[in-house]
## 1
Amino acid sequence: MSETSGAGRLLTPALTMTGRCVRLSRRDVDAVVTSMMLPVMLMLVFVYFFGGAINTGTEYVNYVVPGILVLCSAFGSSGTAVRVSEDMKGGIIDRFRSLDVGGTSILAGHVVASTVRNVFSTALVLSVGLVIGFRPSASAAGWLAAAGILLAFLVALSWLSAAVGLMARTPEAASGFTFFMMFLPYPSSAFVPVETMPSWLHGFADHQPVTPLIESLRGLLHDEPVGTAPWTALAWCGAILAVAVALSGVLFRVRTR
């Protein structure tokens, strides 16, 4: 009985905070449109401007769309840092604390709302990709596995973004994380094979979290062998999530003393 009531005390405020964050997103139309349209525009630029000059051994649109899906997820999730920082600066956190709403519930609301927003953004990018020639050949199991890995990345990165938002003293400083996450997919296999990069860049490109994630999505969506890439990607997601949850808990206590 006590365990059930304890879970309810945590779940109910988290759902309330999620509803609040979703409503705020609906009011911030410019940010929502930007998070949806920027990855689409980048995909169109790479496919139609650069695709003819890049040799990947396959149709470039089939190569690049998995990378754009990850770019979309990274860009959208990183916006959580700005929203958390705005809450900290605006004083609303003190009001929530006076209502006995815990830090976990507040941050969970931001994370879930971010995940919901990014699911729609990802669906839009995938839909446009299909229109311009992306032709996946995945089985139902492949689609489910790809969706699960991408969802794990969304949740992990959203929690990390929440921790960054707690560290940043201003929303403007938090927005720098958005730039970092926009840049991270470039030194990976998102747009060109790692083998075509300078040799000094191979180590970073091969061993950063985005590359195994993209390789997993690309292999699963095209029904190709993926080796250990999915497990490596999930290990990265698990490590990022564990660090982010622990760090955000500590930072929230420090910032709300």
Note: Residues 1-7 have pLDDT under 50 and may be disordered.
## 2
Amino acid sequence: METLLEQVQSYGPLALSVTKAFATLIIGWIVANALGSLARRKVNNTPDIDPTLGNFIASMVRWVILLMVLAAVLSIFGIQATSLVAMLSAATLAIGLALQGTLSDIAAGFMLTLFRPYKLGQFVDIGGTAGTVKDLNLFVTELVTPDNVQVIVPNGQAWGSIIRNFSHHDTRRVDLVFGIDYADDIDKAMQIITELAQADDRIHADPAPWVRVTNLGDSSVDLTTRVWCDNAEYWNVKFELTKAVKEAFDAKGISIPYPHSVEIKKEA
């Protein structure tokens, strides 16, 4: 009994401190997530504020609270904030070198939020990686590719790369190239394409559909077609106009050449 009491007296305070620290971490984690979600909802429910800013603020609120929780846990074990600052100050160079990538991502996150080269839901290409922006937080930008693959891009890399935003403007130009046979009537083929474009309500009349001969290939005369449409209709116009032109060419005797191969056999 005396030995048991001695062990309780020796390890009791440590066990109590560990329990307090564990409880503080759990409660702090829950509070950080709850306040972060609350900040996101408040910002997103404000019509004049972009939802991209809501995600960034939520991430910042969450990490600030977690840092406060960490300081509280350290104080439970007797490590005061002033001591922690002194320790960090003494190791400034080492910490700076170790965290320079993370600090760069945070700074880039602020720049991306300030200038907003892309927003949530927009389709972008960041340094050669294309996808829809799903999230922008304090450290990374999350993209979802058209085949539903998650891509995580560090903010520092995103800010330092060429960004192509396909969703920024309300309208886009659809470029198509149709090849016809050298023996076919060029003006007739151009008229077919123009009439199909003018008959499509999704294609804008201004700028007017543009069809020109742009190349004399090895086996075809290439007709480049440029039409304008709403951004949301880009792919539908591209695919359906291609199909419509092919069917109209077939119906009106315009041939689309394709490579032919000749097999030569040498008999003994």
Note: The first helix runs from residue 2 to 44.
